[in-house]
Amino acid sequence: MNEFAHYLHERGAHQQLWDLLQGHDSAGTEQEDYLFWRLASSVRLDLEQSVRHEVEAYLAENEAPDLRALYASVFLEPAAARSEITRACRSERTPLTVYLYGRVLPRARDGVRVLGKAVKLAESKGHPYEVTRAAGTLTARLIDAGEFVDAVRWGEWALAQFDRLGLSDLQRRLYILNNWAYARIMTGQTAGLEGLLREAQSRLGEAFSSLKSMFRSTLADYLMATDRVKEALDLLVTNFDMAPRKMKGIRGLSLVRGLFELGRDGRKEALEVAREAYSLTRLDSWEYHRSAVLALGMALAFEEPANAVAHLDKVLQFETLTLPAPQMAQARLYLALARAGLPGGEASAGDRALFRKLSKTGLKLLSGPESHFADIWADYAGRHHELELRFLGDPQVLVKGARKGVGSNFKNILALLAYYSEGLSADRLLTELGWSTVDREKIYSYLSKLRNVVPVSPPPYRLDIEWRADFVEVGRLLEGGGLRKAVQLYRGPLLPESDAPGIEEIRSELDEKLRQAALKSDDAEACYALAGILEEDLELWERAADLLDENDPRILKARTRVSRLQREF
């Protein structure tokens, strides 16, 4: 029975396994396996309470390590679960007991170490499913430990193993995919993620409500990272409204962070959400209440800094070593915001080490609006640009992290000065802008007004300030062979509304360089992501379809798009 049960479990056939066990008459040594698989299948079908009494009666008289560890992970509160799983693991080190032990250890780095052993144990003594299960949870614990790059690597490996071995437990694969996607957001590897997350979300079906919430949360993180705040908030509000009482803190923390993007009105709403979550979780264990305390501290940091410090200090001091790295980063960042200008707000060497593992995307996602956090990022992560030109897609000009409203001609001039960093004469600027020589005084006037926003040198005109421009960086990445990073940074054409000849030429040249680099590469991720951005490029869709694995769910979309574009062509 045991091997056949493993077979059904690996394929996600939990209803079939449950039905099979209903008519099974167990006794003696088989009873333990029978109860284990009854409990394992019941959890996936939301029927676990129907077998609880029977399992508890058996455990009262038998050690049953695997059954005990599974029971603890399903029914017990965190502290009690750790105690029982530790007992089970000491009784017998099996792929399941070691895996569950690594999952529940309070310190993430201890969990990473134990789950590494669980992977090896499963490889030598377990089933293929147990290998990918341990590797997938190792991905989650690496995130908790702040090792985001390693989390991406382990997540990719676990997914590849899952598919190569022909496993088909969809919920387990989606759990691994979710953690891998979150790690990629933290490291700024967002190319192609939306399609993967949307596709996965459409396949959730009858999955656990907790898994659905996780996916909504990760998709919302992606949308926040790509400045689509309204779409993200819709998902976060749904998560908070549907959350069980003790999960209000965890779901409320994400919603509070999202609401900050709406300005002052959003901050007021965030404070109400945080207070609700705080009240509703006060009766629960610290693992659940902690997120609500953090959310309240974050919400208070804007309006009541002194009160915010008390809550944020509590989060950091209660169990600093067991705090997941993303929450640690949030607490540190908002503590710095609350203490702005006060003693004790400086970043430690440990803080800086953590923040340097985060991409700009991850750092922004965990903190808040750039206008409030630019100086903190500069101190904590060493990321600071006096001027930032985000001209790919929706154009933005940021000075010291604050967005500046400037007209299209000013954006054209800024783009040209960034691209021709060696400097431009007034005549060359006129040519690139498509203005006639009679507009010489006009260009002087624009440059004079521009100096009220950013320093511009005397002729030849240069940006006399530390600056970063996304379109320039994309070009440099392509020259250095960094195609995937270039695609991640590319959000659309350069200043798409501009008809200035110089801008049109730079735009066309950059787009073609990016296309050709993708078409000549073997990078399926880059080709698929760029095809999704450019939408109607037949060659890119064909290349993506050629490169994607046959088992990749995205290949159907790529082939469908190729067929449509070929017909239209």
Descriptive account of the structure:
This protein is mainly alpha-helical. Helices cover about 70% and strands about 0% of the residues. It has 31 helices and four strands. It has helices at about 1-10, 15-20, 30-45, 50-60, 65-75, 80-90, 95-105, 110-125, 130-145, 150-165, 170-185, 195-200, 210-225, 230-240, 250-260, 265-280, 285-305, 305-320, 325-340, 350-355, 360-365, 370-380, 410-420, 425-435, 440-450, 470-480, 485-490, 500-520, 525-535, 540-545, 555-569; strands spanning about 385-390, 395-400, 400-405, 465-470. Strands 3-2-1-4 form a four-stranded mixed sheet. The longest helix has 20 residues, at about 500-520. The radius of gyration is 27 Å and the shape is globular. About 45% of the residues are buried. The mean pLDDT is about 90.
Could you list some keywords that capture this structure?
569 residues; mainly alpha; four-stranded mixed sheet; 31 helices; 69% helix; 2% strand; globular
SS elements, strand count: 4
Structural class: mainly alpha
Rg of Cα set: 27 Å
pLDDT below 50 for ≥5 consecutive residues: which ranges?
Answer: none
DSSP strand content: under 5%
Oligomerization state: single chain
* Proportion in helices: 55-70%
Secondary-structure blueprint:
Blueprint: H1 2-10, H2 14-22, H3 30-44, H4 49-59, H5 65-75, H6 78-91, H7 95-104, H8 108-125, H9 128-144, H10 148-164, H11 170-186, H12 193-202, H13 209-225, H14 229-242, H15 248-259, H16 264-281, H17 286-303, H18 305-318, H19 325-338, H20 349-355, H21 360-366, H22 370-381, E1 387-390, E2 396-399, E3 402-404, H23 408-419, H24 426-433, H25 440-450, E4 467-469, H26 470-479, H27 483-489, H28 501-520, H29 524-534, H30 538-547, H31 554-568
Parallel strand pairs: 1-4
Antiparallel strand pairs: 1-2, 2-3
Helix pairs in contact: 2-3, 3-4, 3-5, 4-5, 5-6, 5-7, 6-7, 7-8, 7-9, 8-9, 9-10, 9-11, 10-11, 11-13, 12-13, 13-14, 14-15, 15-16, 15-17, 16-17, 17-18, 17-19, 18-19, 26-27, 26-28, 27-29, 29-30, 30-31
